[in-house]
Design goal:
Distance between the termini: 24 Å
Strand order of the largest sheet: 1-2-3-4
Helix content: 25-40%
Largest sheet: 4 strands, antiparallel
Low-confidence stretches: 1-21
């Protein structure tokens, strides 16, 4: 069993990413899966974020995105984003009040008052009187799990939500 966070530290300059305990495990076919979970749970396909051919870096040109993971994450966010205790997301919803609110990827935060680039918008939620409407989450088709800025970064509460859903799926 090989677990390492060096690949993430090398590929991304954001320390919070490393503290979110992504795991990297080696496959026998020399393609390295990235996952939130340790091996062997991570080897279930919907929990693999994607694959990279190199142990020491993640390159958007060679990274293979796992659509099953994207579908799993979308399903989890659609069911749970309205009830996740994310203080920043709640504050933005309360400030904006109505319409659609983008959920930005934290790997490349925009300047104050600006929105993320499309590749850095995870999805959007509909607001009603400053609250996120249940089931309103819509994924952004242009979002990329890996860019030149590194691996995608959900907020800590959203990361926890996805990881807990994966662990629950494993035990059921």
């Amino acid at each position: 069993m090989l677990y390492t966070q060096a690949i993430l530290k090398h590929a991304c300059s954001f320390e919070p990413l490393v503290s979110r305990a992504f795991s990297v495990s080696a496959y026998f076919n020399k393609s390295i899966p990235l996952s939130y979970l340790p091996k062997p749970e991570a080897l279930k396909s919907e929990f693999i974020i994607g694959w990279t051919p190199e142990q020491d870096k993640v390159d958007p040109r060679t990274f293979i995105e796992n659509t099953k993971f994207v579908d799993f994450m979308t399903s989890v966010l659609k069911k749970n984003v309205h009830k996740v205790n994310d203080s920043n997301l709640k504050a933005m919803a309360d400030w904006q009040k109505e319409g659609w609110l983008h959920i930005g990827d934290e790997r490349n935060p925009p300047a104050w008052g600006r929105i993320n680039y499309p590749e850095d918008i995870i999805g959007s939620v509909e607001l009603d009187h400053g609250k996120i409407k249940e089931g309103s989450y819509q994924p952004m088709p242009a979002h990329r799990l890996i860019t030149n800025s590194g691996l995608f970064q959900l907020s800590e509460p959203l990361t926890k939500c996805v990881v807990e859903a994966a662990k629950k799926a494993i035990t059921s």
